[in-house]
Amino acid sequence: MKKVALLLVDRKVPVYMVQTRGPGSEFSIPTMEGLSGAIGLIAFCTDDYGARTGIGYETYVELKHAHENGLRIIPVQLCDTFPPQPSKDIDGRGCQQNCVVLRQSIMRVQDIGMQNAEEVARQIETAWMAMRTD
Fold first, then answer.
1. What top-level branch of life does the organism fall under (predicted)?
2. Domain ranges within the chain, ordered by starting residue
3. Of 25, 26, 4, 2, nearest to 13 (Cα)?
C-alpha cells in the first residue's frame, strides 16, 4: 500500500496516508485530518477491511464517513472474497456496511495479495482523473 501511495505521488495524484511510528503511536487525529479534507477514499480491501472492532478509528469508520459524505470510493480488492466479510467484526455491522457500500456491482481494482503495485497505481490514477472531470 505504501508503494502504491508513493507511485501515486509520483503521478501527481494527491494522497493522504496516515503514518505511524509503531506501537504507542496516535493515529486518531491524523485519520480525522485526512478524512475531513478528502474527496475520495481508496479502500484497500483485505480480508478484515471494514471490521467494526470498537477501536474507533478503523476502516469501518473511514468507509462509513466516505459513504455518508458522498466521497468517491475506489475499492482495491486484495482478498479472495468481495465484498470483504471481516472475521474480527464485533457485531456484524462491518459486514453489513461492506455489502451495501462495496457491492458486487461497483467497479474495483483487483490485485489479490497486492502483486502489482504499478498496475494498481495506474488504475487508481485513471479513476482519479475521471473524478476530476465529473
1. Eukaryota
2. 2-15+27-133
3. 4
pTM of the complete model? 0.89
* 100's grid cell: 451495501
Q: How does pLDDT run across 2-42, given as a tens digit for each residue?
A: 999 999 999 999 999 987 766 777 778 888 888 998 989 99
Which residues, 6+ apart, have CB-to-CB distance to 107 below 8 Å? none
Residue 113's Cβ-side half-sphere holds a number of Cα atoms within 13 Å equal to: 1
DSSP state letter for 24: T
Angle (CA) 20-72-64 rounded to 5° is: 60
Task: Find the length of the chain.
Answer: 134
Among 77, 49, 85, residue whose Cα is nearest residue 64: 49
